[in-house]
Write a structure and sequence with these properties.
Elements lengths: L2 H8 L5 H11 L8 E3 L1 H7 L4 E5 L9 H10 L3 H6 L1 E4 L3 H13 L3 E5 L5 H9 L3 E4 L4 H15 L2 E2 L6 H17 L5 E5 L4 H16 L5 E7 L5 H7 L22 H10 L2 E5 L1 H15 L9 H7 L9 E5 L6 H14 L3 E9 L4 H11 L3 E8 L9 E9 L3 H13 L3 E4 L4
Parallel strand pairs: 2-10, 3-4, 3-6, 4-5, 7-8, 7-10, 8-9
Antiparallel strand pairs: 1-2, 11-13, 11-14, 12-13
């Protein structure tokens, strides 16, 4: 029997009772986070309602506390005495650290050398011993596994564990308690722990109520391992590329989460980094919520047209732990991706008054100049010309087009840059 066949044979379908027991357990430490609604997204999708589950407001800033507490609560006294260890660059680390503190268990967390300072400080503040080791997450994970072999500590996997999955699935039960009319759930996928629990819990609840419910998974296009795995019939490892959504940047599905996704998820779509950046900006402007890139993946899928639905739709803002420096860059990128920032290159005759004239045309169109670069040394320029680079802020695509057209109508040659 192959390894993949064995994994499928060993899969035991979860029960609704298991998720309900987990919900009662995790509520000892977790918040019942708000379920907000977005009229803006509902209008875009053409559906009655769009709900946003605000796990970015959860303790530790993410849903991960649910699975971590459920898992640690089930350790035997002997296992608790040995302590726990995890490898993580962020939310799993904080969830395990917080849960261990609440249960009186010693926690050791291995984090990569380049981990963001806010995540490092938060994990330490929750009482865990943090070991910085490894330039990549694979190296960090290997160091954690070596620690387990040397000390006998219990390794707490980030997603490929039944107790972890049941803990994450409690999110769905809270959502359906607050909005029983939900027909479609849109859930981000990294290793698959969140969507495994949410999809299974939601569908089991819907089945008990005699109705159906659809689940759509969302992956970052640069780290989309699940669809190739489903096509192959078993988990496969892909070559990943850089993505701002590091929280869902996983090269291979878990063996267990693969089975859950195969059984309970109806469709998987992907989103680009531009899509995610636009979603973060939209959430800031429209909902006043700060959401990390992985947490905005569901909204990104709605904005890019990947989600097709008729009834009420819901997604999970799975985390809000974003480094302020990254947030600054993402906002700029998102505004550029939405054509709210434009970079214009304008060829001008090298005579006095041209800069004032172009600035006046932009001002007449009610656009705002953010930055100006002026050069006469570019080799491709005629000797009698200069190039003006204007970074301007607009209200969107149509407004940007009107600014460009006004400059061209005035006789200027204008090139529009792809990025701000």
């Amino acid at each position: 029997m192959s390894e993949q066949t064995a994994a499928a044979t060993a899969f035991e379908p979860p029960t609704l009772e298991g998720f309900e027991q987990a919900l009662e357990l995790v509520h000892r430490v977790t918040r019942r986070t708000p379920l907000e609604s977005s009229r803006f997204l509902a209008e875009i999708l053409g559906v009655p309602k769009v709900y946003l589950k605000c796990e970015n407001l959860q303790r530790t800033g993410a849903y991960k506390l649910r699975g971590a507490y459920n898992r640690l609560s089930q350790l035997t006294p002997e296992e608790r005495a040995r302590g726990v260890v995890a490898a993580s660059a962020g939310n799993h680390a904080q969830g395990v650290a917080y849960a261990a503190r609440e249960l009186g268990i010693k926690a050791t967390i291995f984090m990569p050398l380049g981990v963001a300072l806010p995540k490092l400080q938060a994990t330490r503040n929750y009482g865990a011993e943090v070991v910085l080791e490894g330039a990549t997450f694979d190296e960090t994970s290997a160091a954690a596994q070596a620690f387990v072999r040397d000390t006998g500590a219990v390794y707490i996997a980030p997603f490929d564990n039944v107790a972890i999955i049941e803990g994450q699935g409690t999110v769905a039960l809270e959502m359906l308690d607050a909005a029983p009319d939900i027909e479609t759930l849109v859930v981000a996928i990294g290793g698959g722990g969140l969507i495994s629990g949410v999809a299974a819990a939601a569908k089991l609840r819907a089945e008990r109520e005699g109705r159906t419910l659809r689940v759509i998974g969302v992956q970052a296009e640069n780290t989309a391992a699940f669809q190739p795995s489903l096509d192959a019939g078993h988990p496969v490892t892909i070559k990943t590329r850089s993505t701002i959504a590091d929280g869902i940047a996983v090269a291979r599905p878990g063996d267990l989460t693969f089975e859950y996704v195969r059984h309970y998820v109806d469709e998987i779509v992907t989103v680009s980094d531009d899509d995610i950046a636009r979603a973060i900006v939209m959430l800031l402007e429209r909902t006043k919520l700060v959401v990390e890139p992985a947490g905005a993946a569901g909204v990104a899928a709605m904005l890019n047209g990947s989600v097709k639905a008729t009834g009420p739709v819901a997604t999970i803002l799975s985390g809000g732990n974003i480094d302020p420096l990254l947030l600054q860059r993402v906002i700029g990128h998102g505004l550029a991706a939405s054509s709210r920032y434009l970079k214009l290159r304008i060829s001008l005759p090298d005579v006095p008054g041209q800069l004032v004239r172009t600035a006046s045309i932009v001002a007449e169109q009610n656009a705002n100049v953010v930055e100006v670069l002026h050069t006469r040394h570019a080799t491709e320029l005629p000797i009698s010309d200069v190039e003006l680079e204007l970074h301007i802020e607009t209200r969107g695509v149509e407004h940007g087009q009107s600014v460009v057209q006004a400059l061209r109508d005035a006789g200027y040659e204008v090139r529009v840059g792809e990025r701000y």
